What we know:
The protein is an alpha/beta fold. It has 15 helices and 15 strands.
Amino acid sequence: MHYCSSPGNSMFCRNFMRPGIIQASLKTQKKIIAGNTKVARNVNMEKLRSGYLFPEISMREAQHIEKYPDAKLISLGIGDTTEPLPDIIASSMANYARSLSTADGYRGYGAEQGNKALRKAIAETFYRDVQIKETEVFVSDGSQCDITRLQLLFGSNVSIAVQDPTFPAYVDSSVIIGQAGDFEGKSRMYGNIEYMKCVPQTSLFPDLTITARSDIIFFCSPNNPTGHAATRQQLEQLVTFAKVNGSIIIFDSAYAAYITDDSPRSIFEIPGAREVAIEVSSFSKFAGFTGIRLGWTVVPEELSFSDGFPVINDFNRIVCTCFNGASSIAQAGGLACLSPEGFAAVCSITDYYKENAKILRNTFDSLGLKVYGGKNAPYLWVHFPGSKSWDVFTEILERTHIITVPGSGFGPGGEEFMRISAFGHRESILEAARRLENLYS
Ligand SMILES: Cc1ncc(COP(=O)(O)O)c(C=O)c1O
């Protein structure tokens, strides 16, 4: 028997030899065969609908490569950065790493909240005009990780609202922590989550007059996937809505570096936001740090729970307990990004992706397809009226060998839309534009 490879040695085999407990052992054996352990699966994990969107796309991509091994696949899908890091930034990390091999340069744990100089540089670079203190900035290993830490901070008894469509991590982390009800197949929504429709008819912003109150409002601007950066007036409405309802906004500004017009880059540009908002942000798309892992979260001192307790104190506790600070090497890279030379180098790369977005936008425009986004974000949101977005995904993949992302993966409001990423080498973007022209012209 498999479990008795060393007879009489394992607990299972010893018990199996004693007649009095044979029956119990058989039951145990049955359970072991069914699942190896006696640990019940987390019911919240069971609730999660299917694979997370991007692993699902990766799986389909792998199947496609197997089917067409010679095809030149182009990815306008997952939204990963492609251009090499500026030398000044890579060198700063390499130098820091090298110094760790010296007696003088070696450092162990850093402050859980992040390197003081980096917290200061983040406050001064991104929040100079809105008076965020460096002590309100917590350096992280990426905003996705902090989204989950914030869920842990608020716990399972709060209600949440999300834009529909939006980045799937808010809903999935909410389900995992136990805030959500069951998934309803027909509406394709979880119970106990307020889905705020952000469709072209509502200017890609929620109609707050019909939005129910929630404790926590996740709000992403520029939004992934629609590419819409909320205007100042829209964000003023959002802050007022949160104030009236006593809600907390978790504002995700991961794509703020792509804003080209005068839309706010931070929620803290809106008066009153300090009392109702937290901001999560990232070096990932701003500086090509998707693999290096670096982000930050701003929790203002004024933000408090209903009993008056400061949220920042609890967030600090979560950071100290569930995280031990971002990699010191990544933080050295982050500091280099915020030096004058590093900042200019990083901005030239975001400009490159913005140019890609313009090329793709012109392509879809010329094909007569309605396209949103791409001006303040590295994503285009293309409408395919009457079509199911997974069907469009399959058609584009089969006929052009281009990976896109079906809009429905971002919520029911994304059906009939495709998200097109502008991250890519220029020649791939131009080639993708040619293939799409051939397919749709
Ligand atoms: C809106 C949004 N927030 C957060 C993240 C995660 O960023 P990070 O790499 O910092 O975890 C992403 C990644 O694509 C994103 O699109």
